[in-house]
């Protein structure tokens, strides 16, 4: 009996519109992230690194472990057993975050514009009663709240 109540409560929670919308958002976000990471890694960073003198940001690191030898790539340094601070990867991640944030901003801005338009349409279908100030249908001839006649003589 307790399990059945728990299951019913969970089912009610899971089929709510907001939960399903959130799940779709998470799935799309998960699919969107590799696209942005590829955009940053494969398209944005190579010319940016070239402009700065053939710098590959993904291979920028600081070695915490003292070593007489300098390794040209992060992988070589890590394979040699060095402990590294990978600030180049952090820069790539910051750029990815900025792009994703900008894309979400554009999406929210578009959604807000649609919501405002829908609200404006709803406002056109209603008016306020001049006697009781209730919101009523724009075509009403009599206020359903105060029973005042809205037809001018």
What can you see in these coordinates?
There is one protein chain. The protein is mainly alpha-helical. The chain has one domain: Non-ribosomal Peptide Synthetase Peptidyl Carrier Protein, Chain A. Helices cover 60% and strands 7% of the residues. It has four helices and four strands. The protein has helices at 2-14, 17-51, 74-79, 87-124, and strands at 62-63, 84-85, 126-128, 135-137. The strands form two sheets. The protein has a two-stranded antiparallel ribbon with strand order 1-2. A two-stranded antiparallel ribbon has the order 3-4. The longest helix is centred in the last third of the chain and has 38 residues, at 87-124.
CATH-defined superfamily: Large-conductance mechanosensitive channel, MscL, domain 1
Going by helix content, strand content and strand pairing, the class is: mainly alpha
Strand order of the largest sheet: 1-2
Distance between the amino and carboxyl termini: 67 Å
Q: Count all strands and give the number.
A: 4
Round the Cα radius of gyration to an integer and report it: 30 Å
Shape, principal axes of CA atoms: elongated
Share of residues in strands: 5-15%
CATH class: Mainly Alpha
CATH third-level topology? Non-ribosomal Peptide Synthetase Peptidyl Carrier Protein, Chain A
Count of helical regions: 4
CATH architecture: Orthogonal Bundle
Integer tally of domains = 1
